[in-house]
Write a structure and sequence with these properties.
By secondary structure, the protein is of the alpha/beta class. The protein is built from six helices and seven strands, in the order βαβαβαβαβαβαβ.
């Protein structure tokens, strides 16, 4: 593990190649109970004031990529409102402690993103708790593998879209009246927007929708001085993987057989992409998808 995100070295060995044992948890899963526990950058991410004074709302901020982004944002000087499911409270408490240790404000707003009412309440709580809102980061997602179309129920298909796409739409719509010129929206697609896994048809479809919606929204909002961009991760070791996100029998080879890098990413490796897109350094980056996938070729 690097001492910080600025340390140079061989990227293939920067983080260890993991071979997780077969393990399963009920949805949504707890990161603290995973083997090995994902690296959020708690011991390595070093801030440099790139987001000083920013007020960010982050969904899925209890674990995985969302948690790594929350920690990085706080260490870069941002206050953070965290959205997560009530069942994920113990993971969220860990992230909140790290944010507060960085001297930043952490506003916890647990709830279910499939509820439009909660999405509106989340934005309102963020504005009230932080005294404003200028950065919206949608990371939370539902991913449940099903071997065949016959196994994929209509209820699951609908819930995946409500969690991954509808919630993003509702949050952005509620946030828009509060966003001023210079604000940013960062949505999360996936490698599967381009290379859909056949046993994750619903998840892959939502990621394609997120990518497309974001590019259209970027064109609509840039005249208002609001930038919209996307991060598309490749295989990343998170709680999604151990809560029926992938075939459990494939976990020992997770990431290592797919990526030219020869390993899965750790959440800490995704956070800098979000920091860049939220910072003033990316002022001319609009409607872009930043692929962070270990060399897996995309269109």
């Amino acid at each position: 593990m690097p001492t910080d995100q600025y340390e140079f070295g061989d990227p293939t060995t920067r983080y260890p190649v993991i071979s997780p044992p077969v393990q399963q948890q009920p949805e949504p899963g707890l990161q603290s109970q995973m083997t090995p526990v994902p690296d959020l950058g708690e011991d390595s991410y070093r801030g440099s004031g790139r987001l000083t004074g920013r007020k960010a709302l982050i969904t899925g901020a209890d674990s995985g990529i969302g948690a790594a982004v929350a920690i990085a944002f706080a260490r870069e000087g941002a206050d953070v409102t965290l959205s997560y499911l009530p069942a994920e409270e113990s993971d969220a408490r860990h992230v909140i402690e790290v944010i507060e240790a960085a001297g930043r404000k952490a506003i916890a707003v647990p709830g279910d993103l499939t509820s439009r009412e909660y999405c509106r309440e989340l934005v309102a709580a963020a504005v009230e708790g932080m005294g404003g809102l200028d950065t919206v980061v949608n990371v939370a997602g539902k991913q449940v593998w099903q071997p065949t179309l016959d196994d994929l129920s209509e209820d699951q298909f609908e819930e995946t879209f409500r969690t991954n796409v509808f919630a993003m739409f509702s949050i952005v719509k509620a946030a828009l009246p509060h966003l001023r010129p210079g604000s940013t929206i960062i949505n999360t697609a996936s490698l599967e927007a381009y290379v859909p896994a056949p046993d994750r048809l619903d998840y892959a479809s939502t990621k394609g929708a997120i990518n497309n919606l974001s590019k259209g929204l970027a064109q609509q909002l840039i005249p208002k001085g609001i930038r919209v961009n996307v991060v598309a991760p490749g295989p990343t070791w998170t709680a999604l993987q151990v809560s029926r996100g992938v075939d459990p029998e494939t976990l020992p080879d997770f990431g290592s057989s797919e990526s030219p890098m020869g390993r899965a990413a750790q959440p800490a490796e995704l956070a800098p992409a979000y920091v860049f897109l939220a910072s003033a350094e990316s002022s001319f980056v609009v409607g872009d998808t930043l692929n962070v996938n270990g060399g897996m070729v995309t269109p």
